[in-house]
Amino acid sequence: MNKAEILSTLKSTMVELFELDEDEIQPEANLFEDLDLDSIDAVDLAVKITEITGKRVNPEDFKKVRTVQDLVDTAEQLLD
């Protein structure tokens, strides 16, 4: 799975889970400020990344995630 596929999957998930407008979910969008997600939503995203990659997300690494691009990069690292 490449970055574009990861982004597409995450966008679909975020639209479904959080009822966001797909156009708002851009790589540079801040999860908490721009998309108005909270810590519970972040946990849901970590679970989704685990489902996508088949690998557990390190909680310390996930604390550094701030943008949609950070989510994509985290998933890609787990897939490598």
Q: Any overview of this molecule?
A:
The chain is mainly α and 80 residues long. It has a single domain, classed as ACP-like (Non-ribosomal Peptide Synthetase Peptidyl Carrier Protein, Chain A), CATH 1.10.1200. The chain is built from 4 helices and no strands. Helix 2 (39-53) runs parallel beside helix 4. The protein starts with a helix and ends with a helix. The mean pLDDT is 94.
How many discrete domains? 1
Q: What Rg is obtained from the alpha carbons, in whole angstroms?
A: 11 Å
**CATH architecture title:** Orthogonal Bundle
Q: What oligomeric arrangement do these chains adopt?
A: single chain
Strand content: under 5%
* Main structural class: mainly alpha
The CATH class turns out to be Mainly Alpha
Q: What descriptive keywords fit this protein?
A:
globular; Non-ribosomal Peptide Synthetase Peptidyl Carrier Protein, Chain A; 80 residues; 4 helices; single chain; mainly alpha
